[in-house]
Amino acid sequence: MNSLIILAVAAVAALIGAGIGYFMRKQMAQAQANSIEAKAERMLTEAKSKQQEYIIEGKEKAQKILDEAKHEEKQIRQDMHNAQQRLEKRESMFDQKLLEFQDSQKNLQEKIEKVKVVKQEIENLKQQQADKLQQVASLTKEEAKLELLSMVEEENKTDLFMRIAKMEKEATEKYEEKARDIIMDAIQRTASSHSAETTSSVVHIPSEEMKGRIIGKEGRNIKTIEKLTGCEIIIDDTPESIMVSCFSPIRREVARLALEKLMADGRIQPARIEEFIEKAKQDLAVTIKKAGEEALYKMNIVGIDPKLVNIVGRLKFRTSYGQNILNHSMEVGYLAAIIAAELGVDQARARKAGFFHDIGKAVDQETQGSHPEIGYTILKKFNMDDDVCQAARDHHLDKPESIYACIAKAADAISGARMGARKDSFEQFVARLEELEKTVNSFPGIDKVYAIQAGREVRVFVKPNEVDDYNAYQLAKDIAHKVEEELQYPGEIRISVIRETRIIEYAR
Q1: Residue 462: φ, ψ to 5°
Q2: Which of 152, 186, 378, 401 could form a disulfide with 338 if both were Cys (CB 3.0 to 4.6 A apart)?
Q3: What's the whole-number average pLDDT of the chain?
Q4: What is the mean predicted confidence (pLDDT) over 249-262?
Q5: Domain 194-298 has CATH 3.30.1370.10
Q6: Which fold has domain 302-423?
């Protein structure tokens, strides 16, 4: 019973506690809700206040921007108005200038027409005068002109000759002096080699027994070598040497290399000969390429096609009057650069023009045509400069058109005419001088002819009663022209025609 009462009391107490807790939570929730609503109300009020401020500030900025835009629009309109006024003013000025130009053009055209009329009147008067003169003189205009010139020439031959000589002297004296200084400077600044014999090559052998092995049984070895190389093998009593003779230096070099390889190998027979000749050709091709590259490097010439490099290298084995053409070409290149520097033109182009001027001689023994034409064709094929091509073609002409061709011609003459540059045998030298004197003696009115300075000058004494001063002047030109056409000679030949009258009397 007591336990039931206790339980009932506990239940009642629990119910009372739950009711009190519920009431307290409700009061707390109500207070919290009232607090949130107040806070929200405050925030809403503040937001409305801020909104109002932003709206007012935005309106102020918008008004300001609108005012600035109106001001800028007003300024732009003012600028456009000013520009339009300037354009209208310029258009008005242009129209005025155009009218003035049209007036001037009209006046000028009128003057031109007047000049044409006056010119035609003058021509008519000249023609009338000429017709009257022809009627009076019974000669046409051309006949009268020829008659007058003939009379003047006949009466004034001496004066005419003196005038021509004076004009040529005045026109060329200072240029000759300048050219002489330039050429002398170029010669003094160039060190060159002397020519040597180039028609044969000597091959040293280890013993005399080797001569028999080279000849072979019934001469089959030496015949095979001569057949494959195109050279003549000369075996005589000269100790420890044999000679290879050939007009072509490249063939001669192939034969020399092949013989040296055969003697080093020791097995000399036709099959081995053919093999070693092929090897010699390959080695020579490498040597030619190296020679071309070395020459171009020394001349400071770059960007050359490899095929043209090989052609340049072939000049190492080409000679003219005993002068090596590759050395000659390099020498001409150096001289051309020196002359170009004195004249104030492009030194690099002059050096290239001088170096390639004889490139045609690398293949002229295998190709038809003169070496200037062949050289011009080769350089054109490899797209060289026109000045360089013209120098190769024109360096033997009397008056080349290009300045670089003139420089190459002068440098070529210096290189070929200097002492020791070229080699002639005594017989060839004497025959050349005799032929030169004979050619000059073929002209009428000549008394004596002397070839002096190793054939570089010819002094011609004429008969004064047959050749006057005017004809002597023309005779020198005719002799020079005939020598150029009929004779071959290195460098140039000076023709000196001398006419003098000596009257001797004795007083006793």
Answers
A1: -105, 160
A2: 186
A3: 81
A4: 83
A5: yes
A6: Hypothetical protein af1432 (1.10.3210)
